[in-house]
Amino acid sequence: MLLLPIQIAITFTLLPLQTSELVNAFQHSSIYQRAAYRQARISRHIVVMGSFDADSAQQIIGELYHADYGKRWLTRLHIY
User: How many domains are there within the chain?
Assistant: First the structure.
C-alpha cells in the first residue's frame, strides 16, 4: 500500500527535472544538427565522374532513359 504513493512522489519529482534537461539539450543543439534531408521531387541529378569512353557513356545514357523506367527518371545528367 505504501509503495504506490512513493512511486507517484518519485515520478512527480523526477519527471520535471528530466523534462527540463531535455528542453535544455534541445536549446543547446544547433538547428543544423536537427535538420533532415528532404529529397526534391521535381527532378533528379546524376553526376558521372571519371574516365570513360563512348561505349560507357552510351550504356549510362541508355540505362537512364530506358523505356522500362517510364517518365519517373526525369534527370539532369552531368558528365565530367
Answer: 2
Residue burial 7-35, b: 16+ Cβ < 10 Å; e: rest: eeeeeeeeeeeeeeeeeeeeeeeeeeeee
Containing domain of residue 1, as a range? 1-36
Residue 51: which H helix or E strand, with range? Answer: none
Instruction: Quick: pLDDT tens for 3-20.
Output: 888 899 888 899 999 999
Q: Which DSSP string do the residues of 18-37 spell out, in sequence order?
A: HHHHHHHHHHHS-HHHH---
Is residue 23 located within the same domain as residue 57?
no
Run of H or E residues at 63: helix 54-64
